[in-house]
Design a protein that fits this description.
Elements lengths: L8 H10 L3 H46 L5 E9 L7 E2 L7 E2 L6 E2 L3 E9 L5 E8 L2 E6 L6 E4 L6 E11 L7 E10 L4 H6 L19 E5 L2 H10 L1 E4 L3 E7 L5 E8 L2 E5 L3 E2 L3 E4 L12 E10 L9 E7 L6
């Protein structure tokens, strides 16, 4: 191996590599360089692992802290009473009386009790705030967790109830819920549909049994077959029903009855209207599992109605869908 003593390291390196054994020395220098790079890469890798661990631990800690926070669930219930203190009820033509439900109007002058149903888990309810049309009407810190609203001075139309609540948990988020209701005057035409008035206990008499007769069908052919076989429809998915009648019929109304109690009465509807029935969704829309009776009557638009027709609808539970 020839070694030349030169004045600088670069020339010495070149001289060494140019000798007979330069290839051997080049391998040694290459190994040194590679090991140096590997060492530096290892340092960067360790640093990256440490940073990732810190980020993951921070995220886990944040998630654990978030799980400690309790978000109360709120569902708003309304109780409607007449000015005399009786529960508000309606008696649609040809149907049994039913108490007020959220689909029905509130008659101006009625007293509405806002009764929030608030789930708090293992913790107690800390406080609740209730607002009517964006104005606070109650700040509750103890039972009874409700407030009365006199509708005498409310304008006719829709009104919004809002409820906020927090629990006694160490870390409780603020849950909220809303509900709208309709206030109508005592002489509103909608009430004439929902109330019996001077009609007999069975509703208006059948004026044209043949001309105003009707039947209930579904847009689902399999449901129609069930109706033809046993007048029973098994509903496991959103299903459209409709009322069919002769040319004299201009309108119809329908009711839903469960366990002998009318739970919903529709206003008068044009015959082109469809009725959507579906199992209750996660958002709370639809019908609870079980059987209900769908009843319909058609009218000529002048106050005369035909005989009622009904079918049984079985809302399937989630396990059977």
């Amino acid at each position: 191996m020839n070694i030349y003593l030169l004045n600088n390291g670069v020339s010495a390196k070149c001289a060494l590599l140019s000798g007979p054994d330069g290839r051997f020395l080049a391998r040694i220098l290459h190994i040194i360089r590679v090991r140096g790079k590997v060492k530096n890469m290892a340092k960067w890798f360790v640093t990256l692992v440490l940073l990732t661990s810190v980020i993951l631990l921070t995220a886990v800690g944040a998630n654990a802290d978030e799980k400690k926070r309790y978000l109360p669930g709120i569902e708003i219930a309304l109780e409607v009473r007449t000015p005399q203190g009786d529960l508000r009820s309606f008696h649609a033509p040809g149907l049994q009386p039913t108490y007020w439900t959220r689909e029905m109007p509130v008659v101006k002058g009625d007293k509405v009790t806002v009764d929030p149903l608030i789930s708090t888990g293992k913790e107690g309810l800390g406080e609740a705030k209730i607002r009517l049309d964006h104005a606070e009407i109650a700040h509750l810190t103890g039972p009874p967790w409700r407030v009365d609203v006199d509708t005498t001075d409310l304008v006719e139309g829709y009104h919004l109830i809002e409820v906020w609540a927090i629990t006694n948990a160490e870390k409780s988020e603020e849950g909220d819920g809303t509900l709208a209701f309709l206030v109508v005057p005592p002489d509103d035409p909608l009430l004439r549909v929902l109330q019996q008035g001077d009609a007999s206990a069975s509703g208006p008499p059948v004026s044209d049994e043949e001309g105003l007769a009707c039947s209930i069908h579904s847009r689902d052919t399999s449901i129609n077959k069930q109706l033809a076989d046993a007048s029973l429809a098994k509903v496991a998915t959103p299903t459209l029903f409709y009322v069919s009648a002769g040319p004299a019929a201009k309108e119809f109304f329908y009711t839903l009855t469960r366990e002998g109690r009318v739970t919903y009465t529709s206003p008068r509807l044009p015959l082109i209207t469809h009725i959507l029935l579906q199992p209750k969704t996660a958002e709370g829309e639809g019908q609870a599992p079980g059987e209900l009776i769908l009843t319909a009557r058609t009218g000529d638009g002048e106050g005369r109605f035909g005989p009622p027709v009904w079918i049984t609808v079985r809302i399937e539970s989630e396990e059977k869908r």
